[in-house]
Every structure is written in C-alpha cells, then in structure tokens.
Design goal:
The chain is elongated. The protein has a two-stranded antiparallel ribbon. The model has no long low-confidence stretch (mean pLDDT 94). The protein has eight helices and two strands, in the order ααααααβαβα. The chain has one domain. By secondary structure, the chain is mainly α. Helix content is 77%, strand content 2%.
C-alpha cells in the first residue's frame, strides 16, 4: 500500500472507531481522547497501522513514497515524524468521528468514512503508473531495471500487510461494537 492510501485509511479508521464506539461516546462525560474507544484506536494505530507503514517504508520505501523522493535521502527523524503524523491523522479522524457521533450525525460520519476510502482508491488509480513498477528511485528516474508489480516480493507483502490491516481493523471495530452493547 502506498503512503497516500495508508494515510486515508488511518483517518477513516479513526472515524470508524468513533462510530463503532458511539454508545460509550454518547454517554461518557470524558473528553473524546480519554475514552476507552480512543485508547482502543490508539492501540490499533500503534500496533497494527504504523507497523504496516513501517514495513512498506523499510522494505519498499521508494515505491511506498511513489518515487517522489529517494528514500536514502530521508533522515530517520523525518520518517519518525511521518509515522507520528500518520497516528495524529488517525486521532484527528477519531476526534471528528466522535464529535459527529456526539452530535448524533452518524450518517455524516459514515459518509466521511466512505469519502475517505474512495480517496484511498483514487490515490491508487491516479498513481497507477508509478505503482505498477517496482524498483529504486534511481531506477524509476532513469527508466531502467524496473520489474512489474506482481513479479516480486512486493505483491505478497502487500497481500499479507493488507490482510493484517483488515483483520486488525475488523477486530477493533468488532470489539468496540461488542463493548458498546454492555454500556
């Protein structure tokens, strides 16, 4: 998964977590970020979302960044800030979703999730020419030595990380919905 897609999914997962934990958010007097639902999303972000992003950054970095920059020139501190920014984007999604849930605008929250997921797909479609080939930044810029997307380890890594992300998000949302029945 390329970075723009994962950023969209981070935001959408935050909104979805707020929507799934709506029973708690509506009755809790706590600030949104101090609820159990926010803690559950943060655990998902720290232990599933960011590690998936780190995998793509470390093993397929130039492709992950859509060959926009040479990954060897990105300082590790900047990469760390990028992963923290991804977490912050998910938290912002949770805050927006929580505000919509508390205002009883669940359908708008659902629309935000749909629009953000659509943006994730559009990001892939728009950058398909870059995503269809795998290689280093120098290979992409020079137009040599590139291999097709489906011919190497990137395809199996994308499938595995996609399944991990889907399973983690499914578990998070399922647990939030199940815990809301007990509230």
């Amino acid at each position: 998964m390329p970075m723009p897609t994962l950023l969209c999914l981070a935001f959408a997962s935050g909104v979805a977590a707020a929507l799934a934990g709506r029973a708690e958010l509506r009755i809790s007097p706590r600030p949104l970020l101090l609820t159990q639902s926010a803690g559950a999303w943060l655990a998902f972000g720290l232990f599933v979302l960011v590690p998936v992003s780190v995998y793509f950054y470390l093993f397929h970095g130039d492709w992950f960044l859509l060959y926009a920059v040479d990954i060897r020139r990105v300082p590790s501190a900047v990469a760390l800030l990028g992963f923290l920014g991804e977490l912050a984007l998910g938290v912002a999604g949770f805050v927006l979703g929580g505000a919509l849930v508390r205002a009883q605008r669940d359908s708008i929250a659902g629309g935000v999730i749909g629009a953000t997921c659509l943006a994730a797909v559009i990001a892939v479609v728009v950058s398909w020419d870059r995503l269809a080939v795998v290689g280093s930044y120098a290979q992409y810029e020079g137009g040599f030595g590139l291999s097709p997307f489906g011919s190497g380890a990137l395809l199996s890594g994308t499938v595995a990380m996609g399944l991990i992300l889907i399973a983690g998000l499914g578990y998070l949302l399922g647990r939030l919905v199940a815990s809301s029945r007990r509230v």
